[in-house]
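Chapter summary example.
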Amino acid sequence: EKKTAAKHKNQLGISFVFVKQYKEHLPSYCTDVINLYPDNKASLTPRQDLNKQKWFRWRDGWQKAAGGHIDIAAYNAYKLLAGLVYLRISQNGKVPSGLSFFELCQISAGNMPISYNWGYKEQLADDGTTEKKRRYDITKSLKVPIGRTEFGITYLDLHEDADGPHMLVAGTTGSGKSETIISYLLSLCLHFSPEELNLMLVDMKGGGFIKRLENLPHIVGTVTDVAGDESGTGDEYMVRRFLESLRCEIKRRKLLLNQMHVDSADKYIAACRDIETHIKELSHGSGEFQNNPN
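The structure predicted for these 294 residues follows.
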């Protein structure tokens, strides 16, 4: 890069200005160095001849410029703000102001495609025979609709081979964090059977998040601070109990994977399609925390 710049310097009559905190960081092909000092002092030093250093200063608050003067205070403000990129989000863009879950999934209340989505489809196997496959294969993808942009439906796939396996939703109060999580969880439950997918939910801010989902057949466990308060154990105990349950489940799954000589839940599910006790994909969803647990 340095050789290329040095070779072609000034051929087009263009001057480059590099701003560095230390002159040692400047490219070696810089011909002149300007040092800025307090009290409006500055020096101009040719790199090839240090004896030709020139000193100059400008009056307080003003700097001489071709055709007039520049207010230093305004100039400094300009330099500070010039580095900020301002992107204004249109309030009247093509994104809809509201979108129901039914609209998102293109379904109606009287036509829920649960049996269809959770069911099987027949397809030809490699040996020419007909075999049944899940319409939505959870071992391959967890892709479901989560929202809409001006370009159409947006999908999220928290499968470990796609966007996943983790998701963090951040935003200010009222920006739609909980609605985003609920939309994704509902989409998962609409597309995948509870035989294939289980949910463990944590809500340490009153339990309202879980109340909206508690009747889903996919839910195998819930933790709320309200439950801890009602039982007298407290929210910290409930979180510790939840984490201990997760550790036990992880240990159980490790043993099952080892018995089948596989290294992932997807491979285990694929190998145990006809076994009633096979493990499911386990998704953990957490709402907001009033206090972050240690």
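To summarize the output: The two ends are 49 Å apart (CA to CA).
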